[in-house]
Amino acid sequence: MIRLKRGLWQSIELLLISCVGLWLTSCSPPHYTRGVTNGALLNRKYIFRNIQRDLSRGWSIYSLNPTRTHILIYAYRSGVLASFGHNHVIQVERERGIWLSHGEQGQGWICFPLKTMLVDSPRLRRQAGQGFRSQINTVETQATRRHMLESLDASRYPDVVLSVSNGHIPSSPWLIRIRLHGVIRTYHVPLSFVSSHQDVEAEAKLTIKQKSFQIHPYSIFAGALRVRNALRLNGRINAGPIQNQEMTYTDFISHWCP
Question: Which has fewest Cβ within 10 Å: 65, 118, 152, 180?
Answer without folding.
Answer: 118
